Amino acid sequence: MRQGLVLVISAPSGAGKSTLIRRLREAMPELGYSVSHTTRPPRPGERDGVEYHFVDRATFEAMRDRGEFAEWAEVHGNLYGTALTELRTAAEAGQDLVLDIDVQGALQVAQRLPHAVLVFVLPPSWEELERRLKARGQDDPEVIARRLANARQEVAEAPRYHYVVVNDDMGRCLEDLKAVVRAERCRPVRQQAALAALLGGD
Ligand code: ADP
Ligand code: 5GP
Predict the structure, then answer these.
(1) Which residue out of 136, 146, 168 has the highest number of ligand 1 atoms within 8 Å of its CB and is therefore the one to mutate?
(2) Closest atom, ligand 2, to C-alpha of 40
(3) Pocket-forming residues, ligand 1, beta carbon under 6 Å
(4) How many domains are there within the chain?
(5) CA-CA distances (angstroms) from residue 175 to 20, 27, 167, 170?
(6) Has residue 42 been placed in a domain?
(7) Among 67, 63, 66, 109, which residue's Cα sits nearest to residue 90?
(8) Residues contacting ligand 2 via CB (< 6 Å)
C-alpha cells in the first residue's frame, strides 16, 4: 500500500489558508480533507460535517478523554481536534490528506507521524492580515482583535515547518502549494509502486 501524503497547513487567521486549501482541492480533487471537530459555532454558510463537525464542549471533552483525537488544541478560545478516524480512513485508502490545523496541533501531528509534511502560510504584512480579517466580515471585532494578537506567536513558529509560502498573490501562492505536493509525492516512500514495478516486490 502506498504511504499517503499527510499535508498539514497552518497560518494565522486571515492569511487566506481556507481559500488556498479550497483552491488546492479544486486543482487536485484526489486530495482528501480531514474534517476537524470544533466547539466554535458555525459561521454563516458552514455545514456540519463539511467544514467541521460542530460539537458542544461536553461532547468534545468526552471524545478527548476517550483518546479519540490524534491531536487537539484550544485556539482563540475554542477547542479544535483531529479525530484519529480521519487519519486512519485516509491511511487505509493510501489517500493523500490535507489537515488545516493550528501550530500546536501541527507539532503534535509531527510527533505522531514523523513523515507528515508541514506547510506554513504567511500573510504579506501585518496590515494586510488585519485588512483581510476585517474584509471577511464574519467575526466580531473582539474576535478579530484576539486573532491578531495571537498571530505574532503563531508566525514565530513558522521556522519549525518544512515549507513556508507567502500568500501575497493567491494564484502564485497556490502554485507554490501545488509544487510542494508534487515534490512530496516524488519521495521514494510514496513511489514504492513505481520502484516495485521495476525492481520486483522484495
Ligand atoms: P483563513 O482561512 O486563513 O483565516 P480566509 O481564506 O478566510 O483566511 O481569507 C481571509 C480573507 O482574505 C478572505 O476574505 C479572502 O477572500 C481574503 N484573501 C485570501 N487570500 C487573499 C489574497 N492573496 N489576496 C487578497 N485577499 C485574500
Ligand atoms: P477557524 O475558527 O478560523 O475555522 O479556525 C481557527 C484555527 O483553528 C485555524 O488556525 C485552524 O487551522 C485551527 N484548526 C482547525 N481545525 C483544527 C484542529 O482539528 N486542530 C487544531 N489543533 N487546530 C485546528
Answers:
(1) 136
(2) 2
(3) 11, 13-19, 132, 135-136, 167, 169-170
(4) 1
(5) 10, 10, 11, 9
(6) yes
(7) 109
(8) 10, 13, 36, 40, 71, 73, 75-76, 80-82, 100-102, 104-105
Q: Residue 37 sits in which domain range?
A: 6-199
> Nearest residue CA, atom 19 of ligand 2?
81
CATH code of the domain covering residue 129? 3.40.50.300
The reply to whether 1 falls in a domain is: no
pLDDT tens digits in sequence order for the chain, 202 residues long: 778 999 999 999 999 999 999 999 999 999 999 999 999 999 889 999 999 999 999 999 999 999 999 999 999 889 999 999 999 999 999 999 999 999 999 999 999 999 999 999 999 999 999 999 999 877 889 989 999 999 999 999 999 999 999 999 999 999 999 999 999 999 998 998 999 999 986 5
CA–CA separation, 32 vs 39, rounded Å?
A: 23
Cell digits for 88? Answer: 486512519
How far is the centre of ligand 1, averaged over its atoms, from the C-alpha of 117 (Å)? Answer: 22
